Amino acid sequence: MHIAIIGAGNVGTALSRAAVAAGHSVSVSATDRHKAVASAAESGARAAENNLDAVSEADIVVLAVPGGAATAVADELAPVLHGKIVVDLTNPLNATFTDLDIEETSAAQTLQRHLPGVPVVKAFNTILAGRLSSPTEQGITFSGFYAGDDAEAKKTVSELLASLGFQPIDAGGLRMARALEEMALLNISLNASQGWPWQSGWALIGPTGRA
Asked: Helices H, strands E: what count in the chain?
């Protein structure tokens, strides 16, 4: 797949590294291009000149920016996103990282309102940066939850999650993005308050009726 990752922080760089290792073509951009260059050098991705350059040939556009910046980036890119899938991996944490700061049921639904006609899929937000290249623990594969209202877009995102080694789990429509954002908040809060090493992850196990 051709993937554009908007954001060159810890999460954006970690996802770039994992996607490149899985054989995908990745372009990364950042507000400060020097950060994009450094991220690309570390991950093997291409450092784009800017956000528009990053998405020019992408099939999937991943927003790996702070939650509060997601809608502004979406508004910037909206004119060039026709035919592309937007993956929202942001977590809309408040300034003190103690709760979610959202306008609607979920941040992903707000993002979808800013991008009419462009499929938005919530994915990767429940996976900590340190696990994006390490999707198993003690023989258990971490779950890659995703939610969205476009079936074809979700199928593509499911394939991307699987290519990175995760067990894709369809959480339902975009309304369920709220549940995924709460799951991320819980994991982040536990690591911050308990002094954990930021390596925990979610795995849904047990009979599912699937072979």
From this structure: 7, 10
CA distance 178 to 180: 5
pLDDT tens figures, 158-185: 999 999 999 999 999 999 999 999 999 9
- What residues are paired with 29 via a beta bridge? 6
What the block records as the tokens of 200 is: 């925990």
Strand 143-148 and strand 167-170: pairing? Answer: parallel
What 3-state class would DSSP assign to 137?
Answer: strand
Residue that is written with structure tokens 């290792």 in the block: 21
Q: What's the longest Cα–Cα distance across the chain?
A: 49
Residues 6 or more apart whose CB falls under 8 angstroms from that of 160 comprise 1, 3, 19, 24, 60, 87, 123
How many residues are listed for the chain in this entry? 211
Q: How far apart are CA 201 and CA 204, in angstroms?
A: 10
pTM for the model stands at 0.94
